[in-house]
Design a protein that fits this description.
Length: 367
């Protein structure tokens, strides 16, 4: 069976069941489904809302505050309760969780993006469930993602996910808001988000979540552009996570045209102008061109230009021919220090290591 990387986004409406506190009984059921997928060999990442709701419950506040600062206060109180709840629930299945609190500003910054991606990958490698929420304490109006739908699309990109499942209190995207329109019909598949589709999505009516369907469509748009399929489905549908992950037609599927890898390679080719270059020896050229291998520091003979981790660079042959374009895993200063050495010696030379490769084969397009 194909092992997938799946991001499951749980909205406030799903986690509270429409009440003013966390619905722990339902959370147990959602965790059971995630644990089952995890144990079948898939990689599962949870994007959780509910910090504000948990804070409200913990402090016994009945009215939902309207000011951003008060919501931030509730999120600060509630996030620790929320993560503890997830840790305790996943523990039932012998699993640990790792908390990642992110903002869009973190992910817009190339260096921080790569650092967050390293954390995500390392958690997954150690079979720990990453639990992501917005860092509400520092998310102001300029920098906040604004809702966890958009954040979940960024988390899916960070995780190189195959599938993003947005669970909410409706069974998918309807032709109109089903709360106010009884004749609204479920749309089962979308291959392109057009203006007509966007017009179907109103704001949140539940008053518990923030974005309604509009932010789910924004998230679906971002994820699809990165080659990630998206499903919007109801959080209370039986075995919903497992069934969607297995490809059952449930809710609304947003089908992406390209795979994440094809998308990334296209971006490397057509994206930003190269920030610099490296020259490699004949052995490395054979490995990269003929075998499709990653490029190791050992094969680098020359570094030119000033660039950072995550920048697109050119890979040149000894005769000055451009062989490939790729995303550098180390800055030009770091590559200058580690060129020609064995990967095991990177740590000794730099004092730290981001991995054994200078450019990973998934980040490399041979020309
Ligand atoms: N076309 C539509 N199809 C389905 N739901 C819609 C549509 N337009 C607006 N909505 C509203 O979006 C709400 C879900 O968004 P929201 O309350 O933000 O949930 P969450 O907390 O899960 O993010 C639904 O309860 C529904 O009333
Ligand atoms: N970060 C906030 C969630 C923001 C929000 O309301 O998201 P959502 O319910 O997914 O629309 C929290 O944890 O309460």
């Amino acid at each position: 069976m194909f092992k997938k990387t799946i991001v499951v986004k749980l909205g406030t409406s799903v986690l509270t069941g429409g009440s003013a506190k966390l619905d722990r009984a339902h959370m147990v059921e959602l965790v059971r489904q995630c644990a089952k997928l995890h144990n079948a060999g898939h990689q599962v990442i949870v994007v959780t809302s509910g910090a504000v709701a948990a804070g409200r419950e913990h402090l016994g506040m009945h009215d939902l505050p309207t000011t951003v600062a008060n919501k931030q206060m509730l999120a600060a109180v509630g996030q620790s309760q929320l993560i503890l709840t997830w840790e305790n629930l996943f523990n039932i299945y012998g699993l640990h969780v790792g908390q990642m609190l992110l903002t869009r500003a973190d992910l817009d910054d190339r260096e921080r993006f790569l650092n967050a991606r390293d954390t995500m990958r390392t958690l997954l490698k150690h079979r720990i469930i990453p639990i992501v929420n917005e860092n509400d304490a520092v998310a102001t109006s300029e920098i906040k993602v604004g809702d966890n739908d958009n954040l979940s699309a960024l988390a899916a990109i960070l995780a190189d996910a195959d599938l993003l499942i947005l669970l909410t209190d409706q069974s998918g995207l309807f032709t109109a808001d089903p709360r106010t329109n009884k004749d609204a019909k479920l749309i089962s598949q979308i291959t392109e988000i057009t203006d007509e589709i966007r017009q179907l999505a109103g704001g949140s009516v539940s008053g518990l979540g923030t974005g309604g369907m509009a932010t789910k469509l924004q998230a679906a748009d971002v994820a699809m552009r990165a080659g990630i399929d998206v499903v919007i489905a109801a959080g209370n549908e039986e075995q919903v996570i497992k069934r969607v992950a297995e490809g059952e037609s449930l809710g609304t599927l947003f089908l992406s045209k390209k795979s994440p890898l094809e998308h990334r390679k296209q971006w490397i080719l057509a994206g930003p102008p190269p920030a610099g270059q490296i020259t490699i020896d004949a052995g490395a050229e054979t490995a990269v061109v003929a075998k499709g291998s990653s490029l190791l520091p050992k094969g680098i003979t020359h570094v030119a230009g000033a660039y950072g981790r995550g920048d697109v660079i050119l890979v040149m042959s000894q005769t000055g021919k451009v062989i490939a374009r790729g995303i550098a895993r180390y800055s030009s200063i770091e590559l200058e220090a580690i060129k020609g050495i064995h990967s095991e010696d990177i740590e000794k030379t730099l004092g730290y290591v981001y991995g054994s490769v200078a450019i990973h084969r998934d980040d490399l397009v041979v020309l």
